[in-house]
Write a structure and sequence with these properties.
The chain has 7 helices and no strands. By secondary structure, the chain is an all-alpha fold.
Length: about 140
Amino acid sequence: MRLLSQSGTKCLRLLQEFPQPFCRLWLEAALRKHPATHRLQQAFERDPLFAVHMGYALQALGNLPEQYRRRPVFASEVCGDPHGLDGDSETGKLFLTGLKFVRDHFQELTDAWRQGYRPAVSLAIVGETGSMPPAKA
């Protein structure tokens, strides 16, 4: 029987706390040590405030607005701080990394879409251009 590493144990706890499809996709990839989760792997091991930063990042990733919302407004709602998801903060870096992972691995969410998860995600909330593909009926 193979025991999970400390980061694997943390990841499993986060999966239980944040079962939303986007969070699941990212965390399950981290458990598999997917190369695109390198930043997340480093944060698991090195950041003493990892649980706090990751909690806010996953809360944001799991509750993306259905309509356009400016990032400071969204950050205020999620973190209680308009700068909580800024790209130069640890929480913001994790959130942006997670959002990029979801964007890059969007096709893996097919089952989630079939189960009715349909945020109309605009990457404008994170200051990037473009958007995710629309949900298919």
